[in-house]
Design goal:
α5 (about 140-150) crosses α11, α8 (about 245-255) crosses α9 (about 275-290) and α16 (about 535-545) crosses α22 (about 670-685). This protein is α/β, with parallel strands linked by helices. The strands form four sheets. It has a 15-stranded mixed sheet that branches. The protein has a six-stranded mixed sheet with strand order 7-14-13-8-9-11, with helices on both faces. The chain contains 22 helices and 25 strands. The two termini are about 45 Å apart. The chain is about 30% helix and about 20% strand. β8 (about 265-270), α9 and β9 (about 295-300) form a beta-alpha-beta unit.
């Protein structure tokens, strides 16, 4: 913060790698970064730069707060986009030349999006629960917002939330291919700006309830007042020029925190220095603040540290907190002559000034917008209270080996029958989508969009609003496309990077495309948690709906066939050497607040009676917290049911019939999504009195209990 206030800029010639044909050769690169500083002895090969930065920043945040995860219950949420891509992209390119050489490789442990969270947990934990989120360049801010939701729901007292992203060839060449990289250090909001400059970073904030902080005598830096997440539903790379959605999300964040435009003394802008973003953001600020927009100081730190992608929202949130705490606002580096279309009260040199409240905005590919509001402690009254709401399922769909099914048809996955062959499923996008509009969608994007569209139709939901969003997960992302992309870069050079392919390599691409195709303007997030990615997406949707952050959320997962996942990533990350041929598919459920569903006259399939997540193994203590099983209950597991059955022994759930969905839906990481859809259908059709879905993976797990629909307006609550 001292260096930001001094106006220092971090850009230098890029030394981490060389892409001589790229438009730029500069970046805000971190030097002398060593995994040996934080990794256990002998394990540095499995740690990436992103992992290392994440642990260093998380450790400093905990130390500064005076807490440790071993002595106080703390939860962890990490946002990001690249994880260990830098360390694995050359290996992916080499393996693509000889597919027969694909095998479990320890070095690939750092590749999954979950790796930074896993390493923070291993180095600084144990944390009670751990979550990984991606919403492109707003990922770090989205992690903070999800942490706030956990606190508001009473599921946490303390959450360490933030983001981490390292530089890599894939993103550098990708932004170069889009023509978005500036050959010189970037100039946000400047008339001569010509693009962004990339950087790398990690940042974390320790969020606590006021009661928890006071109980341990902590001195808070600021209050997290409000937050909001929304989607433009406009274009995968280009923002809305008029800033309509960004302004709406800003206003939602203000309202959530009980603030008005008159309360805001500083705006920490996204400010990428691209021609389109800066004009859009200026328009959004003017829409949100009206006449006051001309008098609120605005700055962005990207002109000093670059665009740090998935870490940016968390880094900028931390700087906003420090601006409030110190009473000092950093400048916008590189800004000398403001673009007439971007005229605001820009900060050219640091200002010492009291800051009562501030806004920090983050915008990502696909129009994924997250806004946070912070305030000086005890300056404003309590924000509006939002009561926890009941959550129900009103629709669902699967794309699997049996076809494209609604939830009612998906009950077939519980029927006896032969297991499907591994490999690709029969799927014709033209049977379900307008291919003219869906031309930018890859296979995963088409799977996810079709599943959401069919769930929407089954739920008879005809008018999605800005309170309607989507959360889709994938265990490892688009590995094969990333491999092909990097193979081309290594073989031919950066000038052959495809601007059409690059946006589809982001983990958030499928949900971004679905939001655009279907016109969904609520939260749009991607989740990842290895073998339980569907369960983490659906659990996150339940939490957001219960907390009042959205009324209707489509949630599930999308998985594609992939030799790299089947023979390398899956075995090395799950510890299972040979599971047999891997399949693919998508499963999506529509989660709604009970009141919203009843208001629109929806037919409710099932109520969410209980949900939980944990870090570590499934233990009898976790099972003991489950409500008692009714006589006709069933248990559904995506994969690996044997270990779940063993823990259920000696409880009321040992009498329940257990179904393993991968037996009929195909063996892949998204099988847990099929379990939720089939469970809801079984409850709706009175084939089960309750359905317990248990998702279990290496050192993590989730459980969701579905009960019969509410009767007479009252939610059926088993807990």
């Amino acid at each position: 913060m001292d260096r930001l206030l001094a106006g220092d800029r971090a850009f230098q010639h890029l030394t981490l790698f060389s892409l001589p044909e790229a438009r730029s050769s500069i970046a805000a690169e971190i030097h002398d970064l060593s995994a040996a500083e934080v990794a256990p002895e002998g394990e540095t090969e499995a740690w990436s730069r992103t992992d290392t930065m994440a642990v260093l920043a998380a450790r400093d945040a905990l130390t500064g707060a005076g807490v440790h995860a071993s002595s106080l219950p703390i939860d962890l949420i990490v946002g990001g986009t690249t994880a260990g891509m830098f360390e694995t992209e050359d290996l992916l390119a080499k393996l693509s030349n000889d597919p027969s050489a694909i095998k479990p490789l320890n070095r690939m442990i750092s590749h999954p999006l979950t790796a930074p969270a896993d390493h923070v947990d291993a180095a600084l934990g144990p944390f009670r629960r751990v979550r990984t989120v991606c919403s492109a360049c707003s990922s770090g801010a989205s992690a903070v917002a999800l942490g706030a939701v956990w606190l508001k729901l009473g599921r946490s007292e303390r959450v360490l939330a933030g983001g981490a992203d390292g530089l890599c060839r894939l993103t550098y060449s990708g932004f170069a291919a889009l023509g978005a990289l500036s050959p010189e250090p970037c100039r946000p909001f400047d008339r001569r700006r010509s693009g962004l400059s990339l950087g790398e970073a990690a940042a974390f904030l320790l969020l606590e309830t006021e009661a928890a902080a006071r109980a341990r005598g902590a001195v808070p830096l600021a209050e997290l007042r409000g937050w909001a997440i929304g989607s433009e539903g406009h274009h995968i790379t280009n923002p809305e020029r008029d800033g309509h959605t960004a302004a709406r999300v800003m206003m939602q964040a203000l309202a959530r925190g009980g603030l008005t435009p008159a309360d805001i003394d500083y705006v920490n802008a996204h400010g990428t220095a691209t021609p389109l973003n800066d004009v859009m953001e200026t328009a959004a600020i003017r829409r949100c603040f009206g006449a006051r927009a001309a008098h609120i100081p605005v700055s962005t730190i990207k002109g000093q540290v670059g665009h740090t992608l998935g870490a940016a929202g968390a880094l900028e949130a931390a700087v906003t907190v420090l601006a409030i705490h110190r009473g000092a606002v950093p400048p916008t580096g590189g800004l000398e002559e403001v673009d007439p279309e971007c005229t605001l009260d820009h900060v050219y040199t640091a200002r010492k000034m009291p800051v009562r409240a501030a806004v920090s905005s983050s915008f990502g590919f696909g129009g994924m917008d997250t806004v946070l509001t912070f305030a000086k402690c005890e300056t404003f009254g309590p924000p509006p209270d939002v009561a926890q709401r009941g959550v129900v399922i009103t629709g669902g769909a699967t794309v699997g080996p049996l076809g494209v099914y609604t939830s009612a048809q998906s009950l077939e996955y519980l029927s006896p029958g032969p297991p499907p062959d591994g490999g690709s499923i029969a799927f014709r996008a033209a049977d379900h989508l307008d291919l003219t509009r869906a031309r930018r969608l890859d296979r995963a994007g088409r799977f996810g969009t079709v599943a959401i569209e069919k769930a929407l139709a089954e739920a008879q939901f005809t008018a999605p609003s800005h309170r309607t969003g989507a959360i889709l997960g994938a265990s490892f992302g688009n590995v094969d496309a990333s491999t092909a992309y990097m193979k081309r870069i290594y073989a031919k050079g950066a000038k052959y990077a495809s601007p059409a392919d690059f946006p589809n390599l982001l983990p958030s691409s499928p949900v971004g495309h679905a939001s655009i195709y279907l016109g969904l303007h609520g939260p749009a997030l991607a989740m990842s948690d290895l073998n339980v990615t569907a369960e983490t997406a659906m659990t996150t949707a339940i939490e957001l709906v219960a907390a009042g952050e959205a009324d209707h959320l489509f949630a599930g997962s999308v998985e594609e066939t992939s030799p790299m996942i089947e023979r390398c990533l899956g075995p090395v990350c799950e510890g299972i050497v040979d599971r047999g041929p891997r399949s693919e598919g998508a499963a999506v459920a529509l989660f709604e607040s009970q009141s919203a569903a009843q208001e629109r006259g929806a037919s409710i399939l099932a109520s969410v009676a209980y949900w939980t997540s944990w870090r570590g193994e499934l233990t009898p203590a976790i099972v003991a917290d489950l409500p008692a099983a009714p006589a006709d209950a069933i248990v559904l597991v995506g994969r690996r049911a044997a270990s779940v059955v063993n823990v259920l022994k000696g409880t009321s759930w040992q009498r329940a019939t257990v179904y393993t969905l991968s037996d009929r839906a195909g063996d892949h990481e998204g099988a847990g999504g099929f379990a939720v859809i089939a469970g809801a259908a079984a409850v709706a059709q009175k084939k089960a009195g309750a359905a317990l879905i248990v998702g279990k993976a290496k050192n993590r797990g989730y459980a969701v209990l579905l009960a019969p629909p509410p009767v007479g307006g009252e939610s059926a609550r088993l807990l």
